[in-house]
Amino acid sequence: MLRFLSLLRSPFVVDLRALALLRAAVAAVVLLDLGIRSTDLEAFYSNMGVLPLSVLYERSWNPYVFSLHTSSGLWQVQAVLFLLAAVAAIALFLGYKTRLVTFISWLLLVSLQNRNPLILQGGDDLLRMLLFWGFFLPWGRVYSLDARKRPAPTQLSYFSAATVAYIVQICLVYWCTALLKSSPEWSRDGTALYYALSLDQVLMPGGRLIYPYPELLRFLTLASYRMELFLPLVLFIPFAVPWWRLLFVFVLYGFHLGISLTLFVGLFFIINMASVLGLLPTSAMDWLEKHIVPRAQQLGPRVAARFAPLHPRLASLRQAVQLRVETSWSLSDGLRGWLRSLREGLVVGLLLYICWWNFDSIIKPEWTMKAPMRWIGFLVRIDQHWGMFAPSVFKDDGWYILDGTTKDGKHVDLNRQGGPLTYAKPASVVSLFRNDRWRKYSENYLFVDNAYMRPYYCNYLLRIWHENPANPPLQQLDVIYMKEVSQPDYKVPAPTRELLCGCAP
């Protein structure tokens, strides 16, 4: 019986060092995300930008969510909150007060994402969930500043309900995105990647190289679909676990590197690559520790002492600390055990809730989650949707023209730094976007349901233009979309001009 139970839990046992690596990677991604977002403090998070607080509350607000970033419409207040989030992320990277700063980082990330839902993508959901599950994981137990104050762990393998939740969460990302891809272009025709690379708004140089080869695109489409559907199953095989884990990590790294070279997806591929680091088996971590830690030791004994969890020079000190800790905690073992059981039960309940949420759009209608149950997911933002290019690839491609009319009747394109207006297609449409947040915003800008946001963007552009005295004054600005619907068999239709919005000073 014990052997059977051990076999059942083996796929969910992780290495504490891999969890520490996951922690550092997530913290680094949070810092990178903050750095990119900080370039648009005024545009995306202040009342002077494209989504003032009054419009957010009127049009896009969910009454169950919260946001500290809605406490003020001043960009200066946003800057302070960004700084606090950066400090928390640095502390998380170093493993200082790990559980506390994990909670703070999650809280500020949720707050930030709730401030402007018009610029979010699937990677944001995953980053949020990694921090959420990280709160229940001991990812500060080694390779952290916190580890200096505690005895070395007696073993590096770790199992709990949280490790099950972490692994199942990763599987849900790929299972659900595959199950939601119900269009024949994914499972039968194999044309999904062709249509994805037909979108100039996301086409990268690597995509241009493979785009002319339809048979290659068909093979990659069907392979990607089946990989997302079946590869996660290897994480549940109870034997040869290290080998299956390494296969899963290597395949996904290749998959997401391929995505990054062909499609403009922002931080999506980096977040996904960081998410699987906690799966690295003991053999991989032993190799990394053998080759990385000695180099860290060359930087100085202080660095080595902080980041080598089993450093022999700390052994005697840890033994003494462990003896004192065991003595002082002996009277509270019962309470700690009760709290641990409560935590495990909470994690199991949350995991079941999340599984139900994910499969809600796939299961029978009578089993779907009712509205009164959804407030929990919205409140702590464990709501998630993995519909990347699902159920089919978006076909409405094109590019923006920001047609500004000067007082002397000339037309300039603000999207091309005030150059002469031309309706010719840019050599690289994707280069028109400052970052992926703007690309996502422009995608949402097209939808009829989001027509309310169009005047705010138009007026924001006018104000920014007139703040530069070198720019000629405009008497009119028109936001124009040159629509070019993707066609099969490499057919390129003539673009149609669509006036989305017009505004004047």
TrEMBL record:
PANTHER family per record: HTTM DOMAIN-CONTAINING PROTEIN (PTHR39535:SF2), SPORULATION-DELAYING PROTEIN SDPB (PTHR39535)
Q: Where in the cell is it found?
A: Endomembrane system
User: Taking the first listed entry, what is the main subcellular location of this protein, grouped into a coarse class?
Assistant: membrane
Which spans are transmembrane here? 12-32, 73-93, 156-180, 231-253, 259-280
- HTTM-like domain spans which residues? 11-284
Q: What organism does the UniProt record list as the source?
A: Hymenobacter wooponensis
Name of the protein in its database record: HTTM-like domain-containing protein
- InterPro entries noted in UniProt: HTTM-like (IPR011020), Sporulation_signal_mat (IPR052964)
Q: Which UniProt keywords apply?
A: Membrane, Transmembrane, Transmembrane helix
Q: Name one GO cellular component term.
A: endomembrane system
How does the protein associate with the membrane?
Multi-pass membrane protein
